[in-house]
Amino acid sequence: MTKTRALGGAAMLALASAGQAQTAPAAKPASVSSLVQAVTIPYQQFVLKNGLRVIVSTDRKAPVVAVSVWYNVGSKFEPKGKTGFAHLFEHLMFNGSENAPGDFFAPLKTVGATDFNGTTYYDRTNYFETVPTAALPRALFLESDRMGYLTGAITQAVLDEQRGVVQNEKRQGDNQPYGLTQYKVTEGLFPATHPYGHTTIGSMADLDAASLQTVKDWFHDHYGPNNAVLVLAGDIDVATARPLVEKYFGGIARGPQSVVPPAPIPTLPAPVAETIKDRVAAVMVSRNWVVPGLNDKDGAALDVAAGVLGGLASSRLDNALVKQEKLAVRVSADNESFSQLGLFQIRAIVRPGVDPALVARRVDEIVAEFLKNGPTADEVSRYATTAVADKVRGLESVGGFDGKAVTLAEGALYSNDPGFYKKQLEELARQTPASVKAAADRWLGRPTYALTVVPGPRDAYAEAKVPPKVDVVAAPEAAPKGTRGTLPAVGEVAGLSFPTVERARLSNGIEMVYANRTAVPITRLALGFDAGVAADVADKLGTQQLTLNMMDEGTATRDSIAIAEAKERLGAQIGEAQSSDRTTLSLDVPSANLGAGLDLFADIVQHPAFAEAEVARVRNQQLAQIGQELTNPNGLVQRVLPKLVNPGSPYAKASGSGDPAAVKALTRADLVAFQQAWLRPEKAKIFVVSDRPLSEVKAALEARFGGWRGTGPAGTKAFPANSPATRSRIVLIDRPDSPQSVIAAGQATGLKGTEDLLPLITANDALGGSFLGRINMDIRETKHWSYGVNGRFQQLEYAAPYIVSAPVQADKTGASLDALRQDVREFVTTKPMTQEEFDRAITGGIRALPGNFETSPAVLGAMQANDLFRRPDDYYATITQRYRAMTLPALNAAIDRVVDPAKFVWVVVGDAKTVKPQLDTLGLPVEVMPAASVAGATAMPAASARTAPGAGVK
């Protein structure tokens, strides 16, 4: 993690009173200081005799507890020759311990854990999961067993397996456009011997050279309880937590104390400029400095400086280079704060056809002007308001990547103060133009490391090499040692309490779907239109995307800069999105600023200007985005696969950001026509989750949307009754220099998303819908050829194709595709879902419900899904009964009838000279196409709606 996430808990309700919330349009936005002072995360802490620091925060909104264990070890602790060890151990610690052998995810999934993962960075390694309250003893047993009883479970086979997985994680990152940038920036800013002088992924040569004993010694030296912080946040209190923690962690012996290495802030003696080549569509110029970290007095000021320069939508760089001078298509500035130092980075993607040297010079001039004159008071206030509101949103959750547990653990580990978030917020509220200017002068006036990435074949780099082939024997199943007793049983898990969904209508007929959630003083609103990718203009693909991109670029009374500044003053987020079936405009605003937020949102929705000059600028940005998609392996898949899976369907229109030739020819009239046909009240529904009562929210919406009327005829969509049959084959997209291949497959099932797909999605849990699914466990964990594989039903309103995704190392492309075919074929024939897999899917699915819907964004998403798929509003409130009525034979029969690997159409993106000989051995026709030829969306469109692994809508 970089910056400490702060705020949260039920105490954030005080924000509403702090802002003297009004829905009246003239309400003045709440001040930053009043928002900050109203925020408190209650916690208590204690320390075990072995040095384990324990922090407990009580939040009773849901019957779940977030468990977060943070170790004071990250890549900065790694000496020469052992780079990548901390990250490798993050993987090893998921592979079972002495008293809980096997994959760590299996017992967690059974108890219904959500938000479970682990991460490594320079300063720390962390593990986290959110579990039902009744499953807390089991989670504590598992975490304590891998803390105190791990090394006996690490075998040579386990080490080799996870080393291979890590290598593919690195290849997956390297395979992206600009994927080598992090290595060059690190080398350019730091001496090789500096603790921050190598990336967290480390050296593959160091990992290959690591012996089993060396790895075990690393664990012994760094992962003792005295080097860890345990946070429990949620439905728990100290009186309950202390005996449980003593029971499971108290017997673990203290280990050697981790010594934080000195990490002085390096300053370059003179500016350094370097250029590298990559297979990218546009030049990127960057400026990079090492600056103080989050514990330094200048940390907050540098955050503000980054926001004003390139973090806000109204930032200096964005206004000048993108909106006004039109030299760049995207710019950003970020102050990434670590515990001992930080990285301040500016990046600009040059608009094709513009001289990169001109962009670089303008970046330097804008930074120089900022250092000379500093920010304005309004800029400082807008950034602070935006930052505080973002943190409030994240802290609704008790766990995960952004919740209360993260906030408290970071403060304890990095600053020896779980409440450090409060100090950070107070420091943010105290910032002035003078304090920000002084910090920026101090640190950004120093020599910079400038890196430019230009299009071209990548230079050879050792890390991309495939290691010599080694036959790895899979780790044998180990029996629990039983020295700590059996895995704790799980008590009665509290059921889901899904909020009551209410419906109302505005006077013009727009239906409003509402749920009340009071955990945070935020109103979240989604204005959904029955449009989506299926509504895009068939011979002008990309029209919808450009229309959406233009919606907040100006109205009859506000230009794009005024809109951005207004959002920032309110701490509001206004966004747009498209799925295959729906187009959505959204508002997320502190309820204290609801009235003013709705004023702005209504203006954007009802009065887009589509100014000619702005259309030209945004069109160029979209064309540049298309170019980026055509250099990205996943972007290429998304353009090709849907056309092959959905021939003749409106879903085949999916084409990323569009057909470049069509987008280049789009006019203002095209956008106005689309907006009037589709983004109109007759096609709209408003979904709202708010802490404010329905009557108040409805009145506010009625005042701003009740008189809205459509113009002209509404658009229509037509779906064929039957789709033509597809032919199983492999389409190979040649992308030279790819260290990985991306394999994708799709099969039209003949199903619709409005049918009852829950049995199929539940059955697929054992095949591709979870980490423990067959295809991931085979390709990633057994063969270690991938960082992650998944399969899912892509649930659309009028279709539900089965989709597989598998990024794999290049030299195993053919073998991986063949293994995937075999895994799927066996699952629907000779090796169907087992009783163990069935029990895990059913029990885990039921127990995970409270965690799945802990936050208001999750509830809002469920409300929209229920409406799209024509399900009752109480679908999730009653889903437990449907799970319990399922049987193993019925699930196997259901998926057997639908999934057929012989009907899969395969798309592979990789280096043809390496990959094609492998694919030619598989008995399927292989069609090769250069990546450059994928641009024509009418020939090869792409999918726009994606679902995370294991997260298919149920």
Reconstruct the topology from this structure.
Layout: H1 14-18, H2 32-37, E1 44-47, E2 53-58, E3 64-71, H3 85-92, E4 96-97, E5 100-101, H4 105-110, E6 114-120, E7 125-132, H5 136-148, H6 156-174, H7 181-189, H8 204-209, H9 212-222, E8 228-234, H10 238-249, E9 272-278, E10 284-291, H11 299-311, H12 316-324, E11 328-337, E12 342-350, H13 356-373, H14 377-394, H15 404-415, H16 420-430, H17 433-444, E13 449-455, E14 501-505, E15 511-516, E16 522-529, H18 543-550, H19 560-570, E17 573-578, E18 583-590, H20 594-606, H21 612-629, H22 633-645, H23 660-665, H24 668-678, E19 684-690, H25 694-705, E20 730-734, E21 740-747, H26 758-764, H27 774-782, E22 790-793, E23 802-809, H28 813-827, H29 835-847, H30 849-852, H31 856-868, H32 879-884, H33 888-898, E24 905-910, H34 912-919, E25 926-930
Parallel strand pairs: 2-8, 9-13, 15-19, 20-24, 20-25
Antiparallel strand pairs: 1-2, 3-7, 3-8, 4-5, 6-7, 10-12, 10-13, 11-12, 14-15, 16-18, 16-19, 17-18, 21-23, 21-24, 22-23
Helix pairs in contact: 3-6, 5-10, 11-14, 11-17, 13-17, 14-19, 18-21, 18-24, 20-25, 26-33, 27-28, 28-34
- Poorly predicted runs of 5 or more residues: 1-26, 937-954
How is the biggest beta sheet arranged? 6 strands, mixed
Provide the structure class.
alpha+beta
- Cα(first) to Cα(last) distance is 31 Å
Number of strands: 25
Shape: globular
Percent helix range:
25-40%
Give me the Rg, rounded. 27 Å
Estimate what percentage of residues fall within beta strands: 15-25%
Can you describe what's shown?
The protein has a 6-stranded mixed beta sheet, sandwiched between helices. A 6-stranded mixed beta sheet has the order 14-15-19-16-18-17, sandwiched between helices. The protein contains 34 helices and 25 strands. Residues 1-26 and 937-954 have low confidence and may be disordered. Helix content is 38%, strand content 17%. A hairpin with a 4-residue loop joins strand 11 and strand 12 (342-350). It is of the alpha+beta class.
